[in-house]
Amino acid sequence: MFINKDIVKLAMKKNNIATQTELAERIGMSKSQLSQMLSDDFCPIKTNVLNLMNELKIPFKELIIEETGEHMEQLELITDESIANNINRYEYKLDRYTDVKNISPQKDYTVLETFAGAGGLSLGLEEAGLNSIGAIELDKDACKTLKKNRPHWNVIQGDIVNIANNGIKNHELFTLDKELDVLSGGYPCQSFSYAGKRHGLEDIRGTLFYPYSQILNELTPKVFIAENVKGLVNHDEGRTLETMLDVFSQSGYTVYWNVLNAWNYDVAQKRERIVIIGIRNDLIKKQKKPFAFPEISTTKPVLKDALKNVPDSQGTPYSEKKKKVLELVPPGGCWVNLPENIAKDYMGASYHSGGGKRGMARRISWDEPSLTLTTSPSQKQTERCHPSETRPFKVREYARIQSFPDSWKFEGSVTSIYKQIGNAVPVKLAKYVGLAVIDYLNQF
User: Are 118 and 315 within 8 A, CB to CB?
Assistant: First the structure.
């Protein structure tokens, strides 16, 4: 008895593992150990088990079923059928772009937002020309922000799990009486539980991707927009994204994704997000031109462009100890510009951990875009110090960097406001994505 090398090679291809060296590293062994395992002389069954099989004249599969039948579903992972059902996320990556700057809607397009937060995605889609018919959000401060800025929006405050289970059409604030054009939202990135075979929605229960999928299946919009952190691409070795793509495909959508950098779309911030677009299959059959992501803008704003004449606002100061350290860092610099003894003391164990770590003790320059804003302005690993003052960015500066207009007011404590802005999709990035969707829908 030996390991089927053909099945291993096929599984490596499906999981984007190029070499046996890479496979060996992933499973925590040396290349020579893996080569020995895959040789014709290697038997994966221990000698005592073989002796038991031979003495009792019981085949291996029958013995395993008899002794550990409850785990057989896991053993079925490596079968021709299950491997054939796996998908390669990179086959869904779309590198097609189109100029959308002069696009305007030719019809009254509707959008329902899930996980709306403080409204970055919603506002951007509105600026593109989509009309909000609902915004679902749990956080009370974010809901107050949405209601303050858009009193006419149907802000549906509540747990999306309960809303989806009860049916969005049954909610008193959902009054759409026609086909929905766009469903949008950025659900959290969470690992899934695998049973060995794909069962569509059954694979994703217990995650916040599940209610999003429920609402998608209930409303069957023409198009959906899902955005997330760039890390989703390789989260859980790609299985998380691949399961999402599988579920979307089973729901009747042709799916595309790409990672878009906000700096390429008139935002003074290097912030990368994965954007997933799904188009209902009946539209795919009728389309005259395919969907394309928005073409990169020639404008590359930097911090001085974003913060020009920014209004004063609340903010969080550094501690005196941290302020003394950051005073030593020049604009555009970070911990590498500190004296060695101060850098070692400030960074602690991170000083010896290797890697880039250029976010620590980082002061942004006026002549560069900001690095990705976080939900807290003074986290040690991801500091974003003001260029000419030794302090974190204030909340209106945060909002400007995220391309919110000054007219967009935020509700809640300073901590809550930082969190709302830091979690948001940059408004201008959302607008570009919305224009690309409108450009596609205009053909029907």
Answer: no
Check whether residue 275 and residue 315 sit in a common domain.
no
Q: Which residues pair with 135 in a beta bridge?
A: 113, 155
Give the active site residues: 189
If asked whether residues 73 and 137 sit together in one domain, one would say no
**pTM for this prediction:** 0.79
Structural domain harbouring 242: 91-300+426-441
Structural domain count, the chain: 3
pLDDT (tens digit, 9 = 90+) per residue, 99-127? 999 999 999 999 999 999 999 999 999 99
Could you report the per-residue pLDDT of 1-11, keeping only the tens digit for each?
567 776 777 77
Alpha-carbon distance 444 to 423, whole Å? Answer: 34
Residues 29 and 103 occupy one common structural domain = no
Q: Are residues 100 and 237 in the same domain?
A: yes
Q: Which amino acid is at 304?
A: K
Could you count the other beta carbons within 10 Å of the beta carbon of residue 53? 16
pLDDT of residue 70: 39
Tokens matching residue 110: 């509707």
Write the CB contacts of 37 (distance below 8 Å, at least 6 apart in sequence). 3, 29, 44
Local structure of 119: helix, strand or coil? coil
Residue after which a domain boundary falls, among 63, 88, 113: 88
Half-sphere exposure of 294 (CA within 13 A, CB side): 27
Which residue stretches of 39-149 are H helix? 47-56, 60-68, 72-75, 80-85, 120-128, 140-149
Q: Kindly report, residue by residue over 212-246, the tens digit of the pLDDT.
A: 999 999 999 999 999 999 999 998 888 889 989 99
Nearest to 436 by CA among 267, 281, 311, 258: 258
Of 88, 108, 139, the residue at which a domain comes to its end is 88
State how far the alpha carbon of 22 is from the alpha carbons of 12, 28, 254, 354, in Å: 10, 10, 32, 21
> What does the alpha-carbon distance between residue 43 and residue 49 come to, in Å, rounded to a whole number?
11
Are the beta carbons of 16 and 238 closer than 8 angstroms?
A: yes
Q: Are residues 278 and 308 in the same domain?
A: no
- The span from the CA of 69 to the CA of 90, in Å, is 35
Count of all residues that appear for the chain in the document: 444
State the pLDDT confidence band at 190, using cuts at 50, 70 and 90: confident
| Same domain for 321 and 272 | no
Pair 81, 109 in one domain: no
Are 291 and 262 contacting, i.e. CB atoms less than 8 angstroms apart?
no
CATH number for the domain harbouring residue 394: 3.90.120
Name the token pair of 428: 């201008």
Per-residue pLDDT band at 382 (split at 50, 70, 90) = confident
| Whole-number pLDDT of residue 31 | 63
